[in-house]
Structure formats: structure tokens, C-alpha cells
Amino acid sequence: MSFANVILDREAPTVAQRRAIAKAITLLESTRDDHRKQADELLTALLPHTGKSFRLGISGVPGVGKSTFIETLGLFLIDKGHRVAVLTIDPSSTVSGGSILGDKTRMEKLSVHERAYIRPSPSSGTLGGVAEKTREAMLVCEAAGYDIVIVETVGVGQSETAVAGMTDMFVLLQLPNAGDDLQAIKKGVMELADLVVINKADIDKDAATRAQAQITSALRLFGHHGNPAHAQAMQAAHAVPGSPEAEIRFWQPRVMQLSALLGTGVDAFWTAVTEFKSLQSANGRLTMRREKQALAWMWERIDAGLKHAFRHHPHVRELLPQTIAAVTGGTLPASTAARNLLAAQDHHTPI
Ligand code: GDP
Fold first, then answer.
1. Fewest C-beta in 10 Å: which of 139, 181, 313, 341?
2. Which regions in the chain score pLDDT beneath 50?
């Protein structure tokens, strides 16, 4: 495939490479069977050249300052010599066709910078499907030499889990008043966070400091400390919980203050990310996380593929209308209906 070569060619002119990346991602997002086959070939060709970037997940409610932060951080990183790709998972676009993340001009300077590549969320399909496309787009960007990939999402639905499941580090943005109502912060999302950033600290420094203290203690309660995998890893390393050794060997989620608008705290943020990266590389957690993610992705896509095949099986399709009528009409228990349909598929599937 000719554009695979352009993607991999570090000497290719930026415009040509961007065009090749866009073409590749469009191919990945296509629902046509022949396109999917080409996309699989492309991914297989690119795979040996992927995995060298740092994958950073960023989430937060609309208005918290995600795009301001990514613009500031992206330009800061480019200044340090990095190439930055920004991908987005916008669950609102898959549910309603509308878009929380895409309906305004975002990241004005970053989007036109030749060392940055920004791609909005695929706009149709289930969250699982969109996450799959984004993950594949991430591989294309890595193959093209982007060494920092930022995956952004809004704090609604299950999209945070999807982003945390495809990145090396998951960062949650919060407002300075977040600490006033910790209940409002979804516990499950807090557990995913490797780093919490209190943005807009310039507006209310006191509130930001309060939020930082409150979230720090909340993280101690239900953060990685309570995580069985973390406890196991500490045991394996013969580290005593709470000892300086344990603190050093394993990353403890942190809370920082920042102003994306003024750029204050961005340097300290990146120092923390760099620390995270070297610590998790040294203790093997980074590799473990990626291995687990790749397998989870495989199983998720198998589940989705089986469901798709099941729904399109001729005998299932034949039985489905009457079964649905019987279940909704109250004459057939849902569990029996499910067993009947599964059996219909089993009996007639050619081996
Ligand atoms: P997003 O919806 O999370 O992407 O949020 P935006 O980045 O669009 O920011 C929402 C609003 O907050 C914009 O008007 C920004 O200028 C403003 N904003 C973002 N970060 C900061 C900050 O650190 N300080 C202040 N004062 N305003 C900010």
C-alpha cells in the first residue's frame, strides 16, 4: 500500500505525510468490508513501527479546560522537540449525532502547527467501535513518528474507561470547586486517574488548594492504595506498604494545580508525567499495562464480532421477530428465548 510507505517515511514532506495519515484513518473508519480488509493489512504493516510513543489520556467535564490545556501542553511539548498527535473520543457524537467536543474552534495554534496532528472523534458507531477506531488511529500516528499521543474525552458515559484502557497514563481535569462536592466526582473515574489536575487555579487559588487537599485524601481512600493488583505488586517487590521504598517503586496518584490559560504548572505537570513514565518503565508496569490493554482489546472485539455474527446468522434472523414478540408479550421468559436463539445458531452453524 503506497500510503503506508509515506506514513513511515520520516523524510516525507509534512503535507504528504498528513494526507497519508488522514487517508489511512479514513480507511480504518470505513464500514465497507473491502476497506476493512485493506485497513487490516495496513495496520499489520505499520504495527512493527508502533508503540514507541507515550500515550496520555485526558478527561474532564465540558468547560473544565481540556482544549486549552492540550493546546498549552502541546505547544510546550513541540517546543521541547516532540511531535504531538491529539485524538478525541466524543461519546455524545455516537449517541445523539451532536458533539460536545467538536462544535467549536479548538486548539487554534496547535491545529495548524506542522509538528502536531489533530483528529476529531469518529462520529458514528457504538462507543466500543469508536474506541477501536481511535486506538487504531493512535497506531497510525505512532508509525508516523508522533512520539506523544494525547487521547481526549469528556466525562460522560463510559468513555473515560475506554480512554484509560488505551493509554499509558490517565489524567483527570477538575475545577477548583471540585473538592466541595466530592460525591459528584464519579468514584470509578477517580480510581482510573494516575494524576488529577485542578485547572483554572488562577481564578481561585484558595479553592484550588482546598480541592487539592480533599482530592488527595479521597485518592488515598479509593485510589491505587486499595487496588489488589498494586498490593500484589508491592508484595512481589517485598516493599512494605507506606514505606519510602514502596512510594518510590510504585506510582502513587497525585493531585496538582494548574492554569491552562496562563500556562502555569505545565512544566511541573510534564515533570510528573516524566517521573511516572520512568518509574512505571523501571518497575515493568508500563509494559504490563500495554499487554493487558492489547488482550482486553482483542477480547472486546471478539465479543463484538460474535454478537454481530450472531445477529446476522440466517436462522437467528428468522427466529428473532417471533421471539421478540413472545418475550415482550410475556409468553416466553427472556432467558429461555436467549437459550433458544443461541441453540438455533449452534445447530445450524456449518463447522
Ligand atoms: P473544554 O470544554 O474542557 O475543552 O474547555 P475549554 O478549554 O474550551 O475551556 C472552557 C473555558 O475555560 C474557556 O473560556 C477557556 O478560556 C477557559 N479556561 C480554560 N482553562 C483556564 C484556566 O486555566 N484559567 C482560566 N481562568 N480560564 C480557563
1. 181
2. 103, 225-226, 228, 350-351
Task: Return the bridge partners of 199, or none.
Answer: none
Q: Are 172 and 158 in contact (CB under 8 A)?
A: no
For residue 88, the Cα-to-chain-centroid distance in whole angstroms is: 8
Q: CA-CA distance, 326 to 320, in Å (whole number)?
A: 10
Q: What is the model's pLDDT at position 265?
A: 96
Q: Which three cell numbers stand for residue 330?
A: 410475556
Q: Of 142, 104, 278, which is closest to residue 150 (Cα–Cα)?
A: 142
Nearest-10 crossing angle of helices 285-312, 334-348: 90
197: helix, coil or strand? Answer: strand
Q: Are 41 and 35 in contact (CB under 8 A)?
A: no
| Closest CA to ligand 1's atom 7 | 65
Distance CA 167, CA 86 (A): 12
Q: What is the pLDDT of residue 226?
A: 44
Ligand 1 center–CA 42 separation, angstroms: 38
- Chain centroid to CA 59: 9
Contact 140, 24 (CB under 8 A): yes
Strand partners, 256: 197
